[in-house]
Amino acid sequence: MAARFLLTLLLAFTACLAPARAADAPLTVFAAASLKESMDEAALVFRRETGQQVRVSYAGSSALARQIERGAPADVFVSADVDWMDVLQSQGLIDAHTRSALLGNTLVLVAPKHSAAHAITLDQSADLLPLLGERGRIALALVDSVPAGRYAKAAFDSLGMWDDLRSRTAEAENVRAALLLVARGETPLGVVYGSDARAEPRVKVLGTFPEPAHPPIVYPVAKVKSSTHPQAAVFVRWLRTPQAMRIFRERGFSVR
Prior knowledge:
Layout: H1 2-24, E1 27-32, H2 36-50, E2 54-59, H3 61-69, E3 76-78, H4 82-90, E4 100-104, E5 107-112, H5 129-132, E6 138-141, H6 147-158, H7 162-165, E7 169-172, H8 175-183, E8 189-193, H9 194-199, E9 203-208, E10 218-223, H10 232-238, H11 242-250, E11 254-255
Parallel strand pairs: 1-2, 1-3, 6-7, 6-8
Antiparallel strand pairs: 3-10, 4-10, 4-11, 5-8, 5-9
């Protein structure tokens, strides 16, 4: 009888502690690779203000969305395009009531910092082949799945360059991997976001693609539907505060 009473008391005590543990657990954010510096800083500021620890996992938006589809324990998702957020929303995997367009960005052509390449106007008269040389390649994120790669392909196609460049690309798993290829001098050119170029001192911007040449670059954010973390929706809302917006602007993003 006493043992049964103690067991009942223990279960009740554990149930009382469960919400506290959930609130104390790290908040897991899945964020596009291009957000690395800004989201790291935002996570630190949020923890300083609220005491809530934030753990951020970075990758290409496509890889993160597929992980969420497979049940990865994410609380918040920040994509680098609306398409992958739409995919998750169509499957009921995000809380649509928390979704909003958070940030914007630019698309730029970069070269290694000490390259002899000069600034170029990216329009239909531009020719990048001389800058690539005989064997050089242009670094892009995966053009069939990763937002930065899809934006780049769309821009080249719009400007009439894709047919000449498609066989001269070096595709990387995400935009930061493409940026690294240029920063290391492994490719003479690359296409990344403006915020990426600002974050990497070993590259220089040769030109900015005209916005009409590619779909609008939009970073949506939403709470993952399956998340039970009490701070998930709070963090999503906090990302739209003036303090958070200042962090993103300073890193080269525009705010929506």
